[in-house]
């Protein structure tokens, strides 16, 4: 069994937290190439609690196209994660553990979406939590090895103007 130290555990935790921070930061700045680089080759996206339907099996590039289409006509977005929990096996002196290849992450999330020209007001706000699964990019990867393999948004509430998320040309929204 390969040694998985407390230092390895702490580095994995911070790398996972950094991945989520980057994901939200890059989405809000519409840096789609950077967003795509954070996904595993295959990813399951689940917005069923907010949009209905079924979870989608996709890849990072295709998911970025979906998010870009949803957000490109907005003036501003801000996604904030809090209450972060990372589920990794924690090694101790008397209980060695194997280096994990998967990890789970949950957090509370709050999102504000703004389109100043929306009829009825410029803001819609939603909150809930994310349940995210990660895979290690390769068994020997160094540096920042964690990629998103599943992303589930569990909606707590939505308030504000749903016209904000309607495409101004087609008048079709996603809520």
From TrEMBL:
InterPro entries: NTF2-like_dom_sf (IPR032710), SnoaL-like (IPR037401). Residues 9-137 form the SnoaL-like domain. Pfam families: SnoaL_4 (PF13577). This is SnoaL-like domain-containing protein. It comes from Mycena albidolilacea.
